[in-house]
Structures are given as structure tokens and as C-alpha cells.
Amino acid sequence: MPLVSYVLLSLLGASNMILWGVYADLLMEKFSIKKVLRSLAVGVFAGIYLYLANETLPPIIVVFSAIAIERFTTEVYKNVIREETQEKYLIPSTMSLPFPSLTRRVLGLFVLAVAFLAFKYIRFDFHFLVIYLMAIVPAITGALKDAPHEGFSILKFFRLPLVVLVMGILINKAFPTLEDKYLLLAMGGGERVISECYKKIIRAKVPGKFKVDNIRKPNKEWESKRKYILVPYFFSLIAITAAAIYSL
């Protein structure tokens, strides 16, 4: 595929992430065009990066891999690089690192640079079981982060590894010659599409990361208007489905 196709497919993945984020988070916070542009910029970067790494990836692998890259980059940015007051959050979105702000920013950029360089130039050969076991790591870290604030849920804990396992089996079956590192990325990206659709769209509740109290309450006006976001969101799901069918 040409570079432009990679970029468009990556923007499709980033747009899916943006839409469920807007649908859910605007219940508790104001709209920020900077966040939208940030995710779109990471989407463009992901498309270019994936094209330079491998020009022959199936379209759906590009979509899912771009989502994984967008999520990884955003989490490093939020937890390490960004400085933001945590008063609106029940579950902190920033790691409590005992470093000055400049040191934290340099550390975050260093982590991103090392991760992207290592992924591009190092060939990873994993047994599929090892790849799946990697899904346990974010489940554990998520539980360690969330459980002190909202309690431990065994169903929530195993949901992520289960969805990753299903995605891995399907992707591995459809693309048996896919290099392991792209399988790993695609498993993560596919899991995000399914899990966030369930958590943010189907359940349609206030995200658990926010405080809900007498001062901060869900935006009732947005709660009634956000149904319009579902139109472009479901179009993005249709486009992702079409990319999957075309890839086969």
C-alpha cells in the first residue's frame, strides 16, 4: 500500500479512539480540541512509522497497530510527560514520579524514542503463549491502579486478557505469516476497539476515573446530546470492519 493509505488507515483507528473518548469523557470535562489534534497527530505519525517499518501490512493490521501506538503514546504522555491537576480524577492519571517536571518530560520522551526504535529495528520471535501472557501485565497494572479506588473486580481483571486472547487467535488464524511484533500490536489495538466499545458506548456510564460528588456531576445536557456522536462512531466501526474484510 502507498504511504497515504497507511496514514488514512491510521487516522481511522485514531478517530475511533477519539469518538468514544468524546462520547464518554464530556460527561465530566470540557471539550478540548488540543486532545483531538494530539490523537490525530499521533495517528499521522503512526501511519508514517508503520509504513517505514513495513510496507506490506494488511489494512486491518495497520488500523489496529495504529490504535495500539496511539494508546501507548497517549498513556506515556499522560502519566509521565503531562502536568495536570488531579482534582477531577478518582483514579489518578499521572504517575507519582519523584522527579522535577523537566526530568519527567525527558524521561517520557526517552521511553517513547527507545520503544519506537526498538520496535522498528529489532525482530521479535515469540511463542503465541508468551504474547498472550503479556496481556496479563496491563491487567495487573490496571488492577493495582484502580482497585484501591474502586475495589477489585475479577470479571474486569480477566476481561482484558480474554479479549486479547480472542483477538490474537483470530488475527493469527487470518494472517499466519504475520511477524510477531505486528501481531502483538494488532492484538492490543483490537482489544481497545472491543473493550472501549463495551465500556464507553454500550454501558454508557460515567468513566470510573472521574470523581462524582456534590460539586462534580455528570453533564445532563451532554448526556442527552451525545447520541449524535454514535453516528460517526458506528461509521468508524463499519470502516474498520470493511478494512478487515478487504484484508482477507
Describe the structure.
Helices cover about 70% and strands about 0% of the residues. The protein has about 250 residues and is mainly alpha-helical. It has one domain (about 5-245). Helix 1 (about 5-25) packs antiparallel against helix 2, helix 3 crosses helix 8 (about 180-200) and helix 6 (about 135-150) packs antiparallel against helix 7 (about 155-175). The longest helix has 23 residues, at about 5-25. It is globular, with a radius of gyration of 18 Å.
Number of strands: 0
- Strand percentage lies at under 5%
Please give the domain count: 1
Main β-sheet, in a few words? none
Provide the descriptors you would attach to this structure in a database record.
single chain, 71% helix, 248 residues, mainly alpha
Outline:
The chain has helices at residues 3-25, 33-53, 59-81, 101-121, 128-133, 136-150, 154-174, 180-202, 220-225, 230-247. The chain is an all-alpha fold and 248 residues long. Helix 3 packs antiparallel against helix 4 (101-121) and helix 3 crosses helix 10 (230-247).
Q: What's the layout of helices and strands?
A:
Layout: H1 3-25, H2 33-53, H3 59-81, H4 101-121, H5 128-133, H6 136-150, H7 154-174, H8 180-202, H9 220-225, H10 230-247
Helix pairs in contact: 1-2, 1-3, 1-8, 1-10, 2-3, 3-4, 3-8, 3-10, 6-7, 7-8
